Amino acid sequence: MDPVTEQPPKVVKTDAEWRAQLSPDEYRVLRQAGTEQAFTGEYTDTKTAGVYSCRACGAELFRSDTKFESHCGWPSFFTPLAGDAVIERADVSLGMRRVEVLCANCHSHLGHVFEGEGYGTPTDLRYCINSVSLRLEPDA
Q1: What local confidence, expressed as pLDDT, does residue 92 receive?
Q2: What CATH homologous superfamily does 15-35+53-138 map to?
Q3: CB 27 within 8 A of CB 15
Q4: Residue 14 contacts by C-beta under 8 Å, 6 or more apart in sequence?
Q5: Which of 9, 61, 123, 128 has its CA 20 to 30 A from that of 67?
Q6: What are the structural domain ranges in the chain?
Q7: Is 57 among the residues known to form the active site?
Q8: How many CA atoms lie within 13 A of 102 on its CB side?
Q9: 91 or 52: which carries more pLDDT confidence?
């Protein structure tokens, strides 16, 4: 899996503007690349049909029909809504080699993507995304 080349964000705000817009937990995850505690997020077990958007900027990121049960403690998807909806970049923090997933629109941290874990999904990918990074817009 090769990380995608980054483009500048379309939504640009100051740190103060992000802090005013987001709750402390949202800010910690979305703007500081934090991680919510496993099995605590509001969308971990949600089965509602709809579109998952970036909680920071509202960009559409994932569809519910690509969400699957990974039992990892965070919502998991096998593909983004569109090829350009997310950015993937190398993350070597915490002594690990991972691929970070960010919203392409505002560059907010969403989670990480993992490959080859044997879930039997069409892409063999698991986009492991923090619930606090998302907002579900249910289908009508």
Answers
A1: 81
A2: Peptide methionine sulfoxide reductase. (2.170.150.20)
A3: no
A4: none
A5: 9
A6: 15-35+53-138
A7: no
A8: 26
A9: 52
